[in-house]
Design a protein that fits this description.
336 residues, alpha/beta, Nucleotidyltransferase, domain 5, 2 domains, five-stranded mixed sheet, 10 helices, globular
Length: 336
């Protein structure tokens, strides 16, 4: 089975061909990081325009590298939710036209489900059910993966996502966009115990996250130091921030796993590339005898392979769409 996956939910235009659900034949990504860096974050209008310019070339390259044609494909999968609405519309519109012209099934894929699927590409033997922490710039979820196509959200952020907290704190520290990787790099030379940062909690669900208060605490710390003419050691603050976020994500994920009886835990999303988060959750799982899975770092960010992989499972489950498929900016996993 050959599935073409198309991803355009934010600032990466990506396409990939995946064979038999878990074998990547090609993966092409056109990133816009350098262009958005000057603005300190993604500018939605610019992102949409670049997707329009890049998507045809990216898809052609993915097919060429996989050495397949449109006629060889069994289906075309595309991210339709959630994400920047203009960016999503480019991918969805292109995929619909391509599927119609090639007379191939159109397969809608939820972006978060795609991130979860990166672990199938890394671990050929991984099968549901298991518990997955999905952490990225826009999402922080603890999800029960009940089957390849059925999910239940156990916990989610009430405000900022973990990746958003990393990026906004990084910006306050003077690091360029995207800030998370710079915080990670600086943290390697810092003392994680140098600053005592808050672990915000929320009422109503013990597995929900809140990172807004942590972000505010870091920004206030920097502003107060600046007003007093004091220098803050950015390596120490980065290490303390990374340690705190890693602790929060890990403690709630482990608590959820123990509460629900899961002994198999996975990590996914852009923040799954963070060395502190990877190490903390891996160590916690090892200590308890849990099986632990996390994707290769090259698969942590947005990519077409994760959409093609999840699209393969959606296709096998009979989940397809017609020309009425539309992009959706916000859509819960439970509303798929």
């Amino acid at each position: 089975m050959l599935i073409l996956g198309i991803e355009s939910s934010c600032d990466e235009t990506a396409a990939s061909v995946v064979k038999d659900r878990r074998e990547i034949l090609s993966s092409v990504i056109s990133t816009q990081i350098e262009e958005h860096k000057k603005y300190g974050g993604v500018v939605p209008e610019i992102a949409s325009r670049r997707h329009c310019e890049n998507i045809l070339g990216v898809v052609r390259q993915a097919l060429d590298e996989a050495q397949v044609t449109l006629a060889d494909l069994d289906g075309i999968a595309v991210t339709y939710a959630p994400g920047l609405i203009g960016a999503l519309l480019v991918g969805v519109s292109f995929a619909k036209a391509l599927a119609m012209s090639a007379e191939k099934p159109l397969i809608p894929v939820h972006h978060i489900a795609g991130h979860i699927a990166t672990n199938y590409l890394t671990f050929p033997d991984l099968e549901p059910p298991y518990l997955c922490l999905v952490a990225s710039g826009g999402h922080s979820h603890i999800i029960e993966v009940l089957s390849y196509t059925k999910f239940r959200v156990i916990g989610r952020t009430r405000d900022d996502a973990a990746g958003e907290c990393f990026d906004k704190c990084a910006r306050a520290m003077g690091f360029p966009y995207p800030g998370g990787v710079h915080v990670d790099n600086a943290a390697q030379s810092g003392d994680p115990a140098a600053f005592k940062l808050p672990h915000p909690t929320v009422a109503g669900n013990e597995f929900d996250f809140s990172f807004s208060g942590l972000k505010t605490a870091v920004i206030n710390l920097l502003h107060n130091a600046e007003q007093k003419g004091l220098d803050i050691n950015k390596n120490d603050l980065s290490a303390s921030l990374q340690h705190t976020i890693s602790e929060i994500l890990t403690s709630k994920t482990i608590a959820a796993a123990e509460s629900l009886g899961y002994k198999k835990v996975a990590l996914a999303g852009g923040v799954s590339a963070n060395s502190g988060v990877r190490a903390a959750l891996s160590a916690a799982c090892k200590q308890r005898g849990f099986e632990f899975y996390m994707p290769e770092k090259k698969l942590c960010g947005d990519n077409g392979a994760m959409i093609a992989c999840q699209g393969s499972y959606n296709f096998l489950a009979g989940i397809t769409a017609d020309e009425s498929l539309n992009a959706i900016a916000t859509l819960s996993m439970e509303d798929i």
